[in-house]
C-alpha cells in the first residue's frame, strides 16, 4: 500500500509537466502554421501615384506573370505601361511618368543583354511559393522578394529583384521590380547598354540571329576568338625569344616563368574587354564567357606560381645524375628527392586552391555555380574512375618521395638493367641505363616490382670474378697478381681491402673454378674495374702458361673433342 501511494503521488506530479509541454508544443505549431499560412508582402500607402491607371490586362499577381508582362510590353514598345511593373517610390511624383518610361526602356535593354532569367525559381502563385525538395531554401515557403540576377557595378554585385508590394489596406498585393533595383538601372545601363560602336553598326547587323544573339555577335565572336588566340601566341613567342637572348639570369627566370601565364592573361583580357567595353554581348554569351574568363585568370595565376617555384627548385636542386651517383653525395641525393617531393606538393596545393577559388567565385545563384556544386560528387566519381591510373601513379610518386626507397641519383638493378634514377615524375620514373638509354617506367609499376638499390645506406659491395682454370693452375700466383691489380686502383673505389679474397669454389673434369672477390665502394665505377681486373687476370694466366710451361687455362674445346674421339677409337669392338 505504501508503494502504491508513492507511485500515485509521483505519477500525479509528472502528468502536469507532460500536459504543459504538450500544450506548449501545440501552441508553437499553431503559431508556425498561422505564420506560414499568412501572406507576406511589403506595405506602402500607394504605389506609383504619378503614373496613369494601369491597363486592365496588366497582370502583376504572381512573379512569373509580372516578369512575362514586362517582357511582353517592352518587346512591343509599350514602355509607359511597363513602368507599372517598377517601384518608382524614390522618384518625385511629377517625374514618375517620364522617368518611369525611360527606366522601363533601360531595364528592357538590360534584360535582353545581361540578365539570365531563372524561370524555374519564379513561382506562378501570388505568395511566391515553390514546390520542391525540403533541402532547397527556395522551396516550401512564402516569399515576398525574389532575386532575378546579380550584375556587377562599381566593383561589387548589385541585385535585380522582384518585390511583393501591398499599396494600401484595400488593395491587392502586386509583384514589381524593387525600388533599389530601379535606382541602379541608369548606372547599369550606362555600363552594359549599347556602346557607341554598336550604335554605329548597320541595322541588318543588329537583328536577332539565333539563341537570342544578334547577328553581329555571331560574326564578331569567332573573329574575336581568333584574334585573341593570335595575340596570346604572339606574346608567348616574344617572351620565349627574349628569354633566349636575355643576358641576366633573373630576366631569363622571369621570362620562362611567365610565358604561358602572360599569353593566357592577354588572351582573356582581350576577350573580356572586347565583350564588355567595345561591343557588349548578350546575357546568354556573357553567362558562358564569364566562368571561362574566370577559369582562365585563375589558371594563369596558378601556372605563374607553379612555374616560378619550378624554376626555383631547378636552381637549388642538383640534377646531374652522374654526380649524384657518387657515394660521397648521399646527402645530395636526399636533397634532390626532397625537392622533387616539394615540387609535387606545390603543384597539388596550387591545383586544389585554384579549384576552390573557382568554386567560391562562381555565383551560387548562377546556373554555372549551381551546376558545379550540385554535380561535384558525380564529377569526382567519373574523373576518379577515368583517371584512376594517373591518380595511382601520383600517389605512388609521393610514396617514393616520402619513404625514399629510390632517390634521384640512386643506382639500382631494375629488371636486369643497371640504371641510375634520373627523374621522379608524377606518373613515371625516368631511369638512365648504363648504355645511355632511358627507361620510362610507370611509377605504380616501379613501386610494385622488386629492385636492387645499390646506393641505400651502405653502398659498399663485393663483386665476384669467377674464372675457370686448368687442373694444374697456380692459384697462388694468380692471387698475388689479383692483389697487385687492386693496389693499382683508386683506393676510394676499391675498399675495404680486408674483404678482397681468392677462393677455389669447385673442381670437375674441365678444371677448377676460382672466385676472386673484388671489394668496391663506388657503384658508379665497379663495372669498369671488374672488367679491367678480369682482363688482366686472364692475360696474366696466359702469360704464366707461356713463360712457365704450366697450363693455367682449360684446353680449347677442339682438344677435348679430339681426345674424346681418340678414346672412342681405342675401345675394342664388342664381340
TrEMBL record:
Keyword terms, alphabetized: Membrane, Transmembrane, Transmembrane helix
Segments crossing the lipid bilayer: 214-239, 260-285, 291-309, 341-362, 368-387
UniProt entry tagged with the keyword Membrane: yes
A Pfam entry, by short name: MS_channel_2nd
Descriptive protein name: Mechanosensitive ion channel family protein
Domain Mechanosensitive ion channel MscS residues, every copy: 390-455
UniProt-listed InterPro entries: LSM_dom_sf, MscS_channel_2nd
Amino acid at each position: 500500500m505504501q508503494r502504491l501511494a508513492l507511485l500515485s503521488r509521483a505519477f500525479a506530479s509528472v502528468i502536469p509537466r507532460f500536459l504543459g509541454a504538450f500544450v506548449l508544443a501545440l501552441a508553437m505549431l499553431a503559431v508556425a502554421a498561422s505564420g506560414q499560412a499568412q501572406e507576406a508582402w511589403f506595405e506602402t500607402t500607394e504605389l506609383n501615384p504619378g503614373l496613369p491607371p494601369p491597363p486592365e490586362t496588366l497582370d502583376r499577381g504572381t512573379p512569373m506573370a509580372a516578369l512575362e508582362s514586362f517582357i511582353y510590353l517592352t518587346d512591343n514598345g509599350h514602355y509607359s505601361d511597363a513602368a507599372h511593373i517598377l517601384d518608382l517610390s524614390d522618384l518625385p511624383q511629377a517625374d514618375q511618368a517620364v522617368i518611369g518610361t525611360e527606366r522601363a526602356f533601360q531595364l528592357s535593354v538590360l534584360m535582353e543583354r545581361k540578365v539570365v532569367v531563372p524561370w524555374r525559381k519564379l513561382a506562378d502563385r501570388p505568395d511566391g511559393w515553390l514546390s520542391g525538395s525540403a533541402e532547397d531554401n527556395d522551396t516550401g515557403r512564402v516569399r515576398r522578394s525574389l532575386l532575378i540576377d546579380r550584375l556587377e557595378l562599381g566593383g561589387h554585385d548589385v541585385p535585380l529583384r522582384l518585390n511583393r508590394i501591398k499599396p494600401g489596406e484595400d488593395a491587392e498585393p502586386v509583384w514589381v521590380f524593387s525600388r533599389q533595383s530601379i535606382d541602379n538601372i541608369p548606372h547599369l545601363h550606362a555600363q552594359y547598354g549599347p556602346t557607341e560602336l554598336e550604335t554605329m553598326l548597320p541595322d541588318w547587323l543588329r537583328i536577332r540571329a539565333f539563341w537570342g544573339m544578334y547577328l553581329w555577335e555571331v560574326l564578331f565572336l569567332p573573329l574575336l576568338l581568333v584574334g585573341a588566340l593570335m595575340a596570346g601566341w604572339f606574346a608567348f613567342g616574344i617572351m620565349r625569344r627574349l628569354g633566349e637572348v636575355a643576358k641576366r639570369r633573373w630576366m631569363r627566370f622571369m621570362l620562362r616563368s611567365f610565358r604561358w601565364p602572360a599569353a593566357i592573361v592577354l588572351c582573356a583580357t582581350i576577350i573580356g574587354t572586347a565583350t564588355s567595353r567595345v561591343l557588349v554581348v548578350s546575357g546568354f554569351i556573357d553567362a558562358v564567357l564569364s566562368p571561362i574568363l574566370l577559369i582562365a585568370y585563375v589558371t594563369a595565376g596558378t601556372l605563374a606560381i607553379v612555374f616560378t617555384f619550378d624554376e626555383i627548385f631547378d636552381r637549388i636542386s642538383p640534377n646531374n645524375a652522374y654526380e649524384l651517383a657518387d657515394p660521397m653525395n648521399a646527402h645530395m641525393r636526399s636533397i634532390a628527392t626532397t625537392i622533387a617531393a616539394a615540387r609535387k606538393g606545390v603543384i597539388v596545393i596550387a591545383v586544389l586552391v585554384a579549384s576552390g577559388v573557382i568554386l567560391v567565385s562562381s555565383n551560387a545563384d548562377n546556373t554555372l555555380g549551381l551546376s558545379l556544386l550540385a554535380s561535384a560528387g558525380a564529377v569526382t566519381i567519373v574523373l576518379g574512375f577515368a583517371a584512376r591510373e594517373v591518380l595511382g601513379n601520383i600517389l605512388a610518386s609521393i610514396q617514393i618521395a616520402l619513404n625514399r626507397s629510390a632517390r634521384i641519383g640512386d643506382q639500382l638493378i631494375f629488371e636486369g638493367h643497371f640504371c641510375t634514377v634520373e627523374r621522379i615524375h608524377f606518373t613515371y620514373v625516368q631511369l638512365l641505363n648504363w648504355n645511355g638509354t632511358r627507361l620510362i617506367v610507370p611509377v605504380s609499376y616501379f613501386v610494385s616490382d622488386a629492385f636492387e638499390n645499390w646506393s641505400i645506406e651502405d653502398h659498399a659491395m663485393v663483386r665476384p670474378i669467377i674464372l675457370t682454370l686448368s687442373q694444374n693452375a697456380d692459384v697462388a700466383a694468380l692471387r698475388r697478381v689479383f692483389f697487385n691489380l687492386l693496389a693499382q686502383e683508386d683506393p676510394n673505389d676499391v675498399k675495404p681491402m680486408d674483404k678482397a679474397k681468392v677462393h677455389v669454389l669447385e673442381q670437375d673434369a674441365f678444371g677448377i673454378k676460382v672466385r676472386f672477390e673484388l671489394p668496391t665502394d663506388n657503384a658508379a665505377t665497379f663495372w669498369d674495374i671488374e672488367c679491367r681486373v678480369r682482363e688482366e687476370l686472364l692475360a696474366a694466366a696466359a702469360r704464366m702458361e707461356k713463360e712457365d710451361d704450366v697450363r693455367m687455362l682449360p684446353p680449347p674445346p677442339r682438344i677435348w673433342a679430339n681426345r674424346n674421339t681418340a678414346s672412342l677409337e681405342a675401345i675394342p669392338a664388342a664381340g
